[in-house]
Every structure is written in C-alpha cells, then in structure tokens.
Amino acid sequence: MSRAHRLRVLYSFPHKLGAGRIAHTAWHQVSGLAAAGADVLVCPAVLHRPLPANVIVRPTIARGKLRIPFSLIGSTRAFALHDYIVSRRVERLANQIDIIHTWPLAALQTLKTAARLGIPTVLERPNAHTGFAMDVVQSECRRLGVALPPTHEHAYNLNKLRTEEEEYRAADRLLCPSDFVVRTFLDKGFPRETLVRHVYGFDEEVYYPGVDQRETRPGLTMLFVGACAVRKGVHYALEAWLRSPAHHKGTFLIAGEFLPAYADKLASILSHPSVQVLGHRHDVPQLMQKSDILVLPSIEEGSALVTAEARGSGCVLLVSEAAGAMCKHMETGLVHRVGDVDALTQHITMLHENRPLLERLRASSLGTAHEITWTAAGETLLQIYRNILAEQTSRLHSNVTCAVPTVIENRDHVAETN
pTM for the full model? Predict the structure, then answer.
C-alpha cells in the first residue's frame, strides 16, 4: 500500500471516549491517528470529550445529550449492544474501511463480521493476558491477606475471561503496548506473529518540567500515582522506601485512592512521618514537576501512562519490568524484577546517595521524551496499520502466484497423458 494513501480506520470504543483511564488512552490514539494522516471514523459508546474536527464521530448508545446509562442495562448488555451496532455499521461501510481497531469485551461480533468481509482487525490489549492478570493478582492478594471485591476488575471472572479469549482468537493482531504484555501472551501459547508491539504516550502540553527546585531540598521526593491496588505494588514501594536511608530526610507522596482492605493492611507503614497519602488528586502534573522519582513496582500492567507522563515532567523512573514503562535501565530509569524489594531499595538508595546519577538519568530521560508523546504514538500506530495491510496484500499476491503453477502443471500432465 502506498505511503501516500490515507488509511480509512474504523475505531470502536465501548466506553465514554475521553474520560479517564483507558478512555483517556483511546481519545489520544484517535487524535494521534488523525494528526498522523488517517481518516478516522470513531464509534464510541459515548463521546465525553470533543475530538478534532477531521474525525467523524458516530456514538452507539448516545444521540446528542441522550444516552442509555450503563447502570440501567448493565455493562455486559451495553458492551453487547455496542458491538452489535458497530458490526452492522461494518456491513454497510465495508468498502469504505481499510482496517478496524477494537477494544476488549465489546468486539467479538465486529471481529467476526470483519473477517467475513476480509477487513483486517486489531484488538487493543491495555493490560496483560487477562487470565495471567487474574491469576497473579489473586495470588498476591492471598499472600497479603487482602480480599478483592467480587466486582473488582481483576477479581476472577470466568465469563469475562472466556469472552476475551474468544476475542483474542478472532482478531488478526493483538496490539501490545509493552514487551511484558507480549510475554504474557507468548507464555499462553499465542503465535508471535499475531502480537504487535505499539506504544502509548503523554501530552507534552500538560506534562513538562517546571522551574526546577529539586536541588534545594535536602532529601528525595518519591511519588506514586495511580489506583492504590495490590497489582500496582504499593506495598513493595513502601517496604523499599522505609528500608532505604532516603526516608530519613525524604518524602514519599502517594496520590491515589486505596482499596479499603489494602489500606487497612498497610495502615502501620502508611502512618510513617515520611509518607504522605494524598488521595485522588487533580494536580498530578504539578506533583510530578516537584518530585525526583516516580515509583511503580507493578506486578501486572499494560503500559502505565504515568510512566511516560513522569518522564515528560522530569521524574526519574523506578519501575518493575511489569510496569510496561518506556525506559532503559541505567539510561532513562532504573528497572527491577517484579517483587524484588532488595533491588528497589538499592535503586532508591543509589539516587539518594548519588545525586549526579539522578541528574544524569533525568537529563537522558528528558532528552528522549519527545519520542514517547501521543503525537509519536499516533504515527507509530498508523505505520502498524500500514504494515498489517501490506502483509495482507503480500499474502494475497503470494496465494495467487502459487496457484498459477499448479494449473500449468496439471495441464502439462494432461497433455503428457494424452
């Protein structure tokens, strides 16, 4: 496919596009694709935040200000309705679509319809393989003695797992935002050729270095941002912080809401004078600007957006290999194995005692942060689409050329027999 061809993308998203978490990710993907030169038709359940004018928006369960509340029909029915509506649109628009981008739990009918019509599809994987995620989170919760609410997104749910696994098999490619996500699918037996690495990003207009006052403080400021849940490994960060001499003069800021049972389990160390539990915050960019370190010792993740946002703000990353962070160990951050509190303690201590190393890592991280913006991510995603379409074209061409010699050989055989 010519690079000049404007790809026609149908982007299906079964939530409030432009709200928080994955809805934030999807909004930036759509905007980035449009900026990179794709023609995008986006079908969200509901549009929460306006998109650029060159993006066509057709919600599935909303019209104007009227919408069907998920709470009224339940999320499972809402996802099924969204999927059905999008699949019907695909039927009508088949000759106007080059590729379809879907999201989990509301994609199966759309994927099957696209396969029947010969339209390539990708399925977003914002987290690790769901079976792996459920198993590893349940195991860690049992180890800690913390019970997950039955409705928690990582509580074991067989129906959810079956639906997602059927979607995995129906999609042409699974979009994996980190090597860790790829590994969880390989370990489950998925062919490598079905797993495509792409990237997320950060908004450089929101996350950028402030006036640097870090050097005037006597101690380190370490920051955690996100849902304070077992899967994020906050307990590992707290243990490492209090084992490191950095806590004597430094401060550990925790910005996010705790699962109540998890907070109860950690109550004694959360009350330490060097630890400040801030709750949910709306000033995360400012918190990042005044912090030295962003810590994220996750046990399961896709590619945490906060790691890119922290890099753009001038924080040095201290992350587990499961965090999906776009950084290189000892070049643009420090990376430890999942659950390795000794290594995380050592990394905190290194940056506490070796400020030139901290500054070198910060400078190196900021120097390449332009490579991980949402603008760059949109260009990468568009190129992935092009590669998939080129592979499809090549495969079709190969099938045709392989068929021709067979016909000739058969004719020759007939002639010789006669």
Answer: 0.92
